[in-house]
Description:
The structure holds two protein chains of two kinds. Chain A is of the alpha/beta class. Chain A has two domains: about 220 residues, Rossmann fold (3-Layer(aba) Sandwich); about 50 residues, no CATH class. Chain A has a seven-stranded parallel sheet, with helices on both faces. In chain A, α7 links the parallel β6 and β7. The model of chain B has no long low-confidence stretch (mean pLDDT about 90). The relative contact order of chain B is 0.20. Chain B has a five-stranded parallel sheet, with helices on both faces. In chain B, β1, α1 and β2 form a beta-alpha-beta unit. Chain B is α/β, with parallel strands linked by helices. The chains are: A alpha/beta, B alpha/beta. At the A-B interface, α2, β3, β4 and α11 of A face α1, β2 and α2 of B. β3 of chain A pairs parallel with β2 of chain B.
Amino acid sequence: MEDVLNRDIRAGARLLRWIDDGVGEARSILKQLYSHTGKAAIVGITGNPGAGKSTLVDQLITRYRAQKKTVAVVAVDPSSPFSGGAILGDRIRMQEHALDEGVFIRSFATRGHLGGLTGTTADVVHVFDAMGWDLVLVETVGVGQDEVEVQRLAHTTVVVMAPGMGDEIQAIKAGILEIADIFAVNKSDRDGADRTVRELRLMLDMGKEAIQQQQERVCPPGWMPRVIKTVSTKGEGIDELMTALAEHRKAYENACRDPNFVRARLRREFLDVFRRTLFTRGWSYLMHEDHLKEVVEKLQDGSSDPYTLAKQAVNALGRL
Amino acid sequence: MDEERKIRVLIAKPGLDGHDRGAKVVARSLRDAGMEVIYTGLHQTPEMIVATAIQEGVDAVGMSIMSGAHNVLMPAVVDGLLAKGAEDIVVFGGGIIPDDDMESLKKKGIKGLFTPGTSTETIISWVRENVKPS
Lengths: 320, 134
């Protein structure tokens, strides 16, 4: 615990492992760490597979380090739905920072969790925050349209797109296009970049009022998403992206002076922890004394139905 | 508890050779065996491998070396982990390694060594037997 707060890499890395593996001791340490959180700026990076998220993260690390800020990176890749294994390769593009003590990169596998993150990313971010890293960059798996969880976690969400990956119709769909505080149209040296930028701006312009109303409690009030062209392999547009990130940070900090804004955030955070606590508790009940086996037997001999049995199991939790 | 301990392995390519097919085959077969494999790409120095292993909280580091520099690079990683208090991380390796070098590498703390032609099943069962989640 003390070692984690003193930013001991080994102690922090081990705690992250316990969190990832669901080891019981992690929870009591997280409780104690919580009062040390709230200082880091949390930036989410999401977007389609192959849009260039990892390369962009690599560029952002370089810029933040030039500002003497310390950076932790949470890089999420998918687990195989069949074997449960995973190859985590996001950090290949970030290895030039491997020896920088001001950078901590940690890869995670989704382990069956949907939504673009792992089931415990919120806890992981708390650990990095408590350890005192100035920035926590959260890179999601390559997402489609509905993996929007990162927005609940991050203070600022960057959606990375590449030109030619969708037409106008894609752009007015709900989902990841609604969660962006900043759009990075990456690989913008390719054909179609200007068109993608134009379509995004048009979409944002049309949806202006809706965005401001719906996102009021998530986004800083009055913030209109920015569209920035980048070529992350060449470092182009990164200055503009950094400026947009700084502007959003300022807007976010201003919004935090409003108790309603903070309340909405704390509410989201609590519901996330509550949901996971409930699930863990329910799961351990089912795994205890053959409860799950009994349920399946009742289903198999037709003496009950899944709805009744699920309700019974949940009711039994209260009596434990 | 909703506890699920997984074996995490770093597969690294130290040194200057660019032959990473073997490393990728091993990475993939460990994945198919249900393990989480961090792959760092080519041309890693021992220092980078040590720092990555610690940040990633892995249980083992597997190195693939085709350049003949195994006598230098493999023990450098073992020593680096020791210096950072991470000697519990199991180190293994593969590549074109002459028999004479095998003994001395094992003495220097490389727990498992695999030469070309080893089946992926052999490597998987060796990892399962010798590596436990920390």
